[in-house]
Amino acid sequence: MATVRDTTYDLLRALGLTTVFGNPGSTEEPFLQDFPADFRYVHALQEASAMAMADGYAQATGRPAHVNLHTAPGTGNGMGNLVTAWHNKTPLIVTAGQQSREMLLIEPRLASPRAVELTQPYVKWAHEPTRAQDIPAAFMRAYASAVQPPAGPVFLSLPMDDWDRPADPPPQVRTVATRIAPDPDRLRGFAATLAAARAPALVLGAAVDRADAWPAAVALAERLAAPVWAAPAPERAVFPEDHPQFRGVLPYAIGPLAETLGGHDTVLVVGAPVFRYYPYVPGDYLPADARLLHVTDDPDEAARAPVGESLLGDPGLAMNGLVELLPPTDRSAPPARDDPAPAQPADPPSADAVFAALAAWWPADGVLVQESPSNLAALRRRLRVSRPRSYFTMASGGLGFGLPAAVGIALAERDTGRGRPVVAVVGDGSFHYSVQALWTAARLGLPLPVVVPVNQQYAILKAFADLKHTPGVPALDLPGLDLAAVARGYGCAAEVVESPDRLGPALDAALAADRPTVLPVPISTDVPRIL
Ligand SMILES: Cc1ncc(C[n+]2csc(CCOP(=O)(O)OP(=O)(O)O)c2C)c(N)n1
Description:
single chain; alpha/beta; six-stranded parallel beta sheet; globular
């Protein structure tokens, strides 16, 4: 007779979920017992890394991923990157073991008495099955919930004594839609407003990349002859950044953002929150007399926008619909941006000079994973991402995503056979939040270069303190860290890159290696401005 375990593994197989990211504990062992040969366990040394590796893997494969965590303490370790997965809108099925039902009433060691509340509010659905026999169908429901728009993580708490119980008949393997079409009447209204606009602007968010809608975005931008910005702090690249109409990323503060959009009477935002602000700089949300049209597949995102009219729907379907409805314009397209001036040599080099060298080396099919807070603007100015699904960072502001996410993304590049080179750029502070992901990458033999601009400080926090006039904050310096030694300790290669012209050869060697390579690059300690 089939057990709950048998039926669950069969369902996971049918759903294509044969990779499990995790870190095991006693409460998970009954699920993992006799781990089937056609499944793969990606072993993370800490749950933060398991979560972000799964997130990166799911984003890069375009499919949901399964993360199996230890009960309450392990789930707690994963929470920071669960918050990030929620903001990234990544479909993740997060499971955790639970103590035996027989003892739950008396709360033994490792019981998670309020397991379903623990991951709230950063999951779309959280559940502990009422009966052991409900586990397989709960997985099916978790899958359906995770992938429907807006996609996101879900959580199942699974008691450890459930797995050997006799199973009910298997649940039906169902499919669900992952795109929602916009209301045709409202779409026509949006098209009429855009057709009547004097100076429209297009602002695109990460959902455009998630929806594989770059061609629709380019077609719409060209039909409107409008400048294109990326919405503030985007977790994906959203438009070919070498396209003459691309203007860069909007600032993440209220006043400066409206100033940047000055002169535009109609702002169409697709696939982004309105807007993702960071430092509070008061001002108007929009230029005077401008109106905002908002296309999103997330009703909450639409609801919390302080201005604008919204249309729910998939970014690609909505933009293709607008292209069909919009008449050609006689406006001429805006002129292209200037290229940045050549980088100035200095010793140690500026981040700008290092990123100029990175951009000069960059392979056309390269994939960039970024967690370099204070140097982000310099990186994005220098390295223009020109292909879809080639740039990843966290939507949340929580550090500890980039390094493990890069491992998941590099694994996905190998698994899918695409084999694109993946490069992580991670600040020397950010490096340490989920540093143990290096070990997993080394065990998997992933040729992942990790470029670490070393300024021995939390530079962005110094910039923030400066903007907010809060002098005297402790703990903003990071002396005495030997990143190469840490990397070698986890089984990686390491090479300190002493000058920008050494970066290209070091990257070539790293991509040809059979393991990750950490490349600390000493840079100037000048603190870039936050805005
Ligand atoms: C989980 C988490 N803890 C703390 C912070 C606060 N924080 C934001 S940026 C930052 C410093 C990042 O330092 P580094 O990676 O060296 O980049 P730099 O600012 O120097 O460019 C810190 C600690 C955070 N965002 N997330």
